[in-house]
Amino acid sequence: MKMCVSFQEYGLCEEWGCLYPIPREHLISLHQKHLLHLLERGDSEKALQQLLQRIPDPTMCLEVTEQSLDQHPSLATSHFLANYLTTHFYGELTAARHHEIQALYMGSKVLLTLPEQHRASYAHLSSSPLLMLEQLLMNMKVDWATVAVHTLQPLLAGQEIGFTMEDVDSLLSRYAGKALDFPYTLREKRSDSVIHLLEVVSLVSDPETLTKSSSAEFSSAAPPGISTVHSPSPRERSLPQSQPPLEFVPPATPPARHQWVPDETENICMVCRREHFTMFNRRHHCRRCGRLVCSSCSTKKMVVEGCRENPARVCDQCYSYYNKDVPQENPGQLEGKTELHSLSLYLYTQAAIQGMTIGPCLPGAT
């Protein structure tokens, strides 16, 4: 018998059981292995018609199905077994067991809605559909979470599995509140001319600057050869003088994973020192220096010695250090011109509000 089972000759084993007496526990084990073998091969009709329906004892059939489910088989097999148990043995199951099986059935339904290449990442949560939904929200898979909610809604109607649609709504409300709690602003990469215009905007918007005479405000328009002396305001004198930042030098060799900066030690990006790490703005480790950086400061990849996956994600400072001779990508002329026109419009708007006049500030403007 054991040799027949080892060679997966389950039909021969079934015939053996009809000729010779087999202990009940051995027969249950045989049926269980045969059932899983058929289901993993995709022969669900054969498993139903030639095995489950031919077991004369309903109690044994229930035990075989439950024990098969407890083996944590594949997603399709778990879905079949959970559906079979809730359909044929609803009255024989305990309340706790029914909740567990029903949750697994719903979880497998949700799991089947995810892209196939990503299902393995959430398969361990198939028996906890509410926890799976929360994991999707934590990973910012909003589209997948939307499909999951629509899948759960009809399944939860009239069912008691430990949570309700009210719990789903509460979970969505909590994470909607978290999504609105962004203690940082997204970084934008702009050209030097755009940054200069932004500085002009800040000066135009400064009430202290607006109190100056028009000749002082637009001293830059003085005729050539006439120098103007600018007296710094108290506000300008109070501002600290900016020093050019020191160039970051990566370590001589890439640090091992256990030498990376631990997640809990930093709350803001170690490159820009501005963006706070939150549930939606996640930490990233630079594979070259091991620091914790935000997504905006780790947009590049390069080959890192000893890294399992190459090219690997690195911070922008490490990339710039090792690619000094590589020309940087410049924004397209149209994009830069659009940004300049937008800022020019803002300048004119601010000037109009204050009753001032500003001359053309864009090439070709009249």
From TrEMBL:
Region (Disordered) residue spans: 214-259
Keyword annotations from UniProtKB, A to Z: Metal-binding, Zinc, Zinc-finger
Domain of life: Eukaryota
Occurrences of domain FYVE-type (ranges): 263-323
CDD domains: FYVE_ZFY26 (cd15724)
GO (cellular component) term, any one: centrosome
Coiled-coil residue windows: none
PROSITE patterns documented for this protein: ZF_FYVE
SMART domains: FYVE (SM00064)
InterPro entries reported in the protein's UniProt record: ZFYVE26 (IPR028730), Znf_FYVE (IPR000306), Znf_FYVE-rel (IPR017455), Znf_FYVE_PHD (IPR011011), Znf_RING/FYVE/PHD (IPR013083)
Gene Ontology terms describing biological process: double-strand break repair via homologous recombination; lysosome organization; mitotic cytokinesis; regulation of cytokinesis
GO molecular function: phosphatidylinositol-3-phosphate binding; zinc ion binding
Assembly with partners or alone: Interacts with AP5Z1, AP5B1, AP5S1 and SPG11. Interacts with TTC19 and KIF13A.
Summary of the function given for this chain in its UniProt record: Phosphatidylinositol 3-phosphate-binding protein required for the abscission step in cytokinesis: recruited to the midbody during cytokinesis and acts as a regulator of abscission. May also be required for efficient homologous recombination DNA double-strand break repair.
Family matches, as PANTHER family: ZINC FINGER FYVE DOMAIN-CONTAINING PROTEIN 26
Protein name per Swiss-Prot or TrEMBL: Zinc finger FYVE domain-containing protein 26
